[in-house]
Every structure is written in structure tokens, then in C-alpha cells.
Amino acid sequence: MPFPNRFAELLPEITAWRRDFHEHPELMYQEHRTAARVAELLRSFGVDEVQEGIGRTGVVGVIRGKGPGTKVIGLRADMDALPITELTGHPHASKNPGVMHACGHDGHTAMLLGAAKYLAETRNFSGTAVLVFQPAEEGGAGAKAMIDDGLISRWGVQEMYGLHTNPGTPIGKYKTRSGPMMASADTFQITVTGRGGHAARPHECIDTMLTAAQIVVGLQGIVARNVNPLQSAVLSVCACKTDSPATNVIPQVVTLGGTVRTMDPGVRDLIEARLIKTATAIAEAQGATAEVLYERGYPVTINDADATSHAIAVAEAIGGDNAVDSTIDPVMGAEDFAYYAEKIPSAFVFLGNGDTAGVHTPDFDFDDESIPFGSSWLAGMVEARAVA
Ligand SMILES: [Zn+2]
Ligand SMILES: [Zn+2]
Questions:
Q1: Residue 112: band (very low, low, confident or very high) from pLDDT cuts 50, 70, 90
Q2: Where does CATH 3.40.630.10 sit in the chain?
Q3: Which of the four pLDDT bands, split at 50, 70 and 90, describes residue 360?
Q4: Which CATH architecture has domain 184-295?
Q5: Residue 80 appears among annotated catalytic residues
Q6: 0.90 exceeded by the pTM?
Q7: Closest to 45 measured CA to CA, from 2, 14, 82, 6
């Protein structure tokens, strides 16, 4: 098992990669410099195969173990940054104005490179490690792009493991849970069309504003009355736009927008169906029409029970019995790691980043002291799972 002290030796090198990525952040599907550097480093480690351009800007590295096993274990890192102006003031702060690695993907990429270097040197496993450096986690579904490009079928990946830095959790600690861990995240837009006109003559109009207001109220009944109270879901109407700024005109068109989060694929299907039905029926009752555009975003991230127990065992082997909190509540944020977990048994863990500002803030600061714990867990998953 690759304990953190093995990675402590590699820490200065991995930290230098991490800070280089941090200085040169790139937005989704623009990770050209990052991907080129990842591929260059993988080749320098002597990995068996490096493929660039998978899922547009993704990179895949393949390392074959010493043993004859056939197990194929995938390890995933994400490479994209966010459109945020960095305020940390570090010497290695972003040199790309308005773009920042504020979600720690620079750290994820560097930690997986560290694991790759170790695995290519030692090869103390039987089977194959597939290292997945994906683009566009931040809303661009880079995981799906790589899967659509044949990632799982081409390399025969059987299990997938990934981690995410977690501010507020101590360095060296891991958090996870079996089952749903992160929410599905969908968006919707409802276009209500009626008959606009003079606000003083409502009887000659079909009031789109009143209809939209009734739809907002009606939608709240879905989570309150249709979803099983033992399940969790969020339906938030967040935007309302009219085609007229006037205070004496009933608008012809009102557009509502919002988000739906769930922890269960069945609840997600239910809410989508009820949302469309509720909006269109309320509009019809008013003599208006409602056109609903429901766009599915990331699915629910569901950790496989067996994969999660393996992930916990490896983390405990590294950090001791108290290293893992395996009973956390699910979080309503979304992760495109969900696309791997839909296809093959997978587990996702949070890795402690200490007491820092949250991800997606301009003060977020990835703590390089967490690197040995991330790299050793990633490498450890291969050594634990790819056995004869
Ligand atoms: Zn993020
Ligand atoms: Zn992230």
C-alpha cells in the first residue's frame, strides 16, 4: 500500500506541477496547455499508452501492472478552471485574468499525475490502471464527452474512482457515503404566452403575470405533495422575465426559469413530468399557454456499495481507523463523476483541504499538504483492486 510517506518524497515535484497548473488555469474545453503538460509528464513517467483528444481535450494514460490480472481500474481527475478572478495574492496565483482554479482541479490533476508516476515506477498490481484526465467538469459534462468518445468501452474500464478536495475537512481525512452522494442538477424554462394589453383593462387580456405567479405557487406543491417525504428534492424558481418593462402593460410573454435537484433518478423523473403537467395545466386554465423546456444536467452521483467499501478500506489503510467519515449526508451540489457511476461501479470521496475558504470563491486555496493523501489513495485503489 502506497502510504503517504512514499508520496512525501514526491511532494515537492507534485506541488510544482500543481502550482504550474494553478498559474495557468483554463476554462472548460480550452484545457490545451494543461492537457499537453499532462500528456508530456505521463510520457516522461514511461506509462504504456497516452492518448490525447479524448472527449475533445481529455487525456488518457494506461499503465499495466506486473501481474497477469485482467482487472481494469479507472482513476479520474478533472482539469478545468472557473471564470473567477483570484484574490489569494499567492506568487503562483492565476496569470490568466478572470480565470482561476477555484475548485481544486489543479490539485486533482497533480495528485493523479503523482499516482501515475508511482504506479509506472512500481507496477505492484495485476491488471491495468486507466488514468482519466477529463475536461469540463464545471457544467460542460466532460465526463460524458469522454464516455461518448469510447473511454469505458475502448479501455474496458471496470471500476472508476475519483476524489474532490473538501474545505472544512482536516488534512488527511476522507469523507464519503454509499449510495447517492451528490444531486442531479437540471434546469427548466417556462414560457407563458397570453394576451398582453392595457393594465387598466385586464378583462381584455389573458394575464401572463398572474398565470406565471400561479405556476410558481403550483410548482411548490410538487416537492411538498408529490415527492415522498422520505426522499429529498429541491425545486427553485429563480428567474422571471417579461417582454415589457412598463408598469401599465400586461406583458404578452413571461418567462420563468429555475433549477431542480434530486438524490434519486425516480424522483427526478417524477418532478420533470409533474413540472411539465403543472405548468401547462395552470396556463391552460387561464387561457394562456406554457411551453416548458426541461434540460437535464448532471445525474445523481451514486456510489456503488462495494466500490465505496473498497474506497474506505484504502483510505483507512493510509490514514488509520479514524481517517474516514463514511456516513456523511449527501450534498445538493452536482458532479459529473455521476456519468461514470451510471455506467460502472464507482466511488467518489472528499479529501480534506483543512480550514480554507470554500470552493468557487476567489479566496479558495488548495493545500498542497493534502497531496500525499490524495495521490496515495488513488494509487492505492489500483493496488487494492487490480489484483490477480
Ligand atoms: Zn466546482
Ligand atoms: Zn470541482
A1: very high
A2: 3-181+300-385
A3: very high
A4: 2-Layer Sandwich (3.30)
A5: yes
A6: yes
A7: 14
